[in-house]
Amino acid sequence: MGLEPVINDIMDASNKEVNRINSEADREVARILDEARQTAKKLRGDRLVKVEEDIENLRKQELSSAKLDVKRIILNVKKEMPDEVYDKALNSLSQLPPSKNEEYLKTILKGEEKNGTKVYSNKDSETLVKKLTSLEYAGNIDCIGGVIIENEDGTVRLDYTYESILKEVNERSLKEISDILFG
């Protein structure tokens, strides 16, 4: 007898056994499902109303919680966006091209030179400020740009540093900026 018929016999026997096991499993699954349906029907009667109430309460809680989360996120965005815009503006001012910096310093000094006798600037602008004004150059300050003008006895200081100007504009325009960004 050849090997082929033996293999076919084994395969046939295996397939019959698999079919028998699958058939038994299908019957068992059907029986278990039928029992589960019967149990569910029994439990459903008394608990259905309670479950529906619990589901509705949970839905309301989740909805309320989600609304609070959305409000919190919106408030955070409303706070972060103006701060981000402010930081970007400050960064832009710190990277002004020399020609723009000179233009701004000329404007500031031209308008305020009469209000003081001394001027301060950052180290990078020292030579330019000395060239642009007849005020006494009193030293360097830590800023990204701009000047501080001071009277002779130091009792009046006009802060025209770019940081101070931007901060003042930001504070004055915060509501308008917020309205533009968020409607």
Short description:
Has multiple subunits with at least A(3), B(3), C, D, E, F, H, I and proteolipid K(x). This protein is an alpha+beta fold and 183 residues long.
Describe this structure in words.
The protein has a domain at 96-182: hypothetical protein PF0899 fold (2-Layer Sandwich). It contains 4 helices and 4 strands; from the N terminus they run ααβαβββα. It has helices at residues 3-94, 98-112, 126-132, 162-182; strands at residues 118-121, 136-140, 146-150, 157-161. Helix 1 (3-94) crosses helix 4 (162-182). The model has no long low-confidence stretch (mean pLDDT 86).
The biggest beta sheet is recorded as: 4 strands, mixed
Count of DSSP H/I helices? 4
Which strand-content bin applies to the residues?
5-15%
The CATH class of the domain at 96-182: Alpha Beta
CATH superfamily of the domain at 96-182: ATP synthase, E subunit, C-terminal
Order of strands across the biggest sheet? 2-1-3-4
Structural class: alpha+beta
Stretches where pLDDT falls below 50 for ≥5 residues? Answer: none
Terminal Cα span: 90 Å
- Rough outline: elongated
- How many strands? 4
CATH topology of the domain at 96-182: hypothetical protein PF0899 fold
Mean pLDDT: 86
Task: Please state the second-level CATH architecture of the domain at 96-182.
Answer: 2-Layer Sandwich
Order of helices and strands: HHEHEEEH
GO cellular component, one term: proton-transporting two-sector ATPase complex, catalytic domain
Membrane topology: Peripheral membrane protein
GO molecular function: ATP binding; proton-transporting ATP synthase activity, rotational mechanism; proton-transporting ATPase activity, rotational mechanism
Subcellular location: Cell membrane
